[in-house]
């Protein structure tokens, strides 16, 4: 079985990336194939709204998004994390969500299982809006959204690696991953 993680932070080793890695641990521990896409290392340009993908079935923008399209087809589960910028997902992640349009007729994520993680600077910093944006996109793709103990995982962290001092949030991320893993296994058994 295969899982992908998409880290929407432009910062290397950002707090949302750290939580994503914790959420992927149950998959690694259960022998799944794990691919992680770090938007801090990739170039994903925004959608040009040219609609040429509707004519030829392929996005004409030449960048790292084509590897993510392949991963959408390959995976059985997906976890997406994002820092909160302006009370919403990062612009880097928004480009991926928008660019899914090129393959949405194909529905490569339909029936797969997913979860979301959002990290903001303060309480009421937009984490709920960010989680809702990711889950709304997942639902539009036909993904079965799986919660952690509540919804996705939300956290408050400001400085790099702050999240490593929050044992409860690290545990919440692992619970989210475990819940997604269990639902995916039930669906595919």
What fraction of the residues are assigned to beta strands by DSSP?
A: 15-25%
Q: Please name the CATH topology.
A: Rossmann fold
- CATH H-level superfamily: Flavodoxin domain
Low-confidence stretches: none
Rg result: 16 Å
- Arithmetic mean of pLDDT: 95
* Outline type: globular
Helical proportion, percent range: 25-40%
Biggest sheet descriptor: 6 strands, parallel
Succession of helices and strands: EHEHHEHEHEEH
- Please report the total strand number as a whole number: 6
Tally of helical segments: 6
Describe this structure in words.
By secondary structure, the protein is α/β, with parallel strands linked by helices. Helices cover 40% and strands 17% of the residues. The protein has six helices and six strands; from the N terminus they run βαβααβαβαββα. Strands 1, 2, 3, 4, 5 and 6 form a six-stranded parallel sheet that branches. The N and C termini lie close together (11 Å). The model has no long low-confidence stretch (mean pLDDT 95).
Keywords:
189 residues; alpha/beta; Rossmann fold; 6 helices; 6 strands; globular
Task: Describe the protein's topology.
Elements (H helix, E strand, L loop, with lengths): L1 E6 L7 H15 L3 E6 L13 H5 L8 H10 L2 E7 L7 H9 L13 E8 L6 H14 L3 E2 L7 E4 L10 H22 L1
Parallel strand pairs: 1-2, 1-3, 3-4, 4-5, 4-6
Helix pairs in contact: 1-6
Provide a short characterization of the protein structure.
With 189 residues, this protein is of the alpha/beta class. The protein has helices at 15-29, 52-56, 65-74, 91-99, 127-140, 167-188; strands at residues 2-7, 33-38, 77-83, 113-120, 144-145, 153-156. Strands 1, 2, 3, 4, 5 and 6 form a six-stranded parallel beta sheet that branches.
């Amino acid at each position: 079985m295969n899982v992908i993680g998409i880290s929407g932070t432009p910062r290397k080793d950002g707090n949302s990336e750290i939580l994503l890695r914790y959420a992927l641990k149950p998959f690694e521990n259960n022998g799944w194939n794990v691919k992680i896409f770090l938007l801090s290392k990739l170039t994903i340009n925004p959608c040009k709204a040219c609609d040429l993908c509707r004519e030829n079935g392929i996005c004409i923008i030449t960048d790292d998004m084509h590897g993510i399209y392949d991963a959408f087809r390959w995976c059985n589960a997906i976890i997406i994390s994002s820092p909160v910028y302006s009370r919403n997902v990062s612009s880097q992640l928004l480009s991926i969500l928008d660019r899914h349009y090129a393959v949405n007729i194909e529905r490569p994520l339909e029936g797969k299982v997913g979860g979301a993680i959002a990290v903001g600077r303060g309480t009421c910093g937009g984490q709920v809006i960010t989680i809702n944006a990711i889950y709304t996109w997942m639902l539009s793709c036909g993904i079965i959204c799986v919660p952690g103990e509540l919804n996705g995982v939300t956290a408050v962290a400001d400085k790099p690696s702050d999240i490593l001092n929050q044992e409860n949030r690290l545990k919440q991320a692992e619970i989210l991953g475990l819940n997604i893993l269990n639902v995916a296994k039930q669906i595919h058994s």
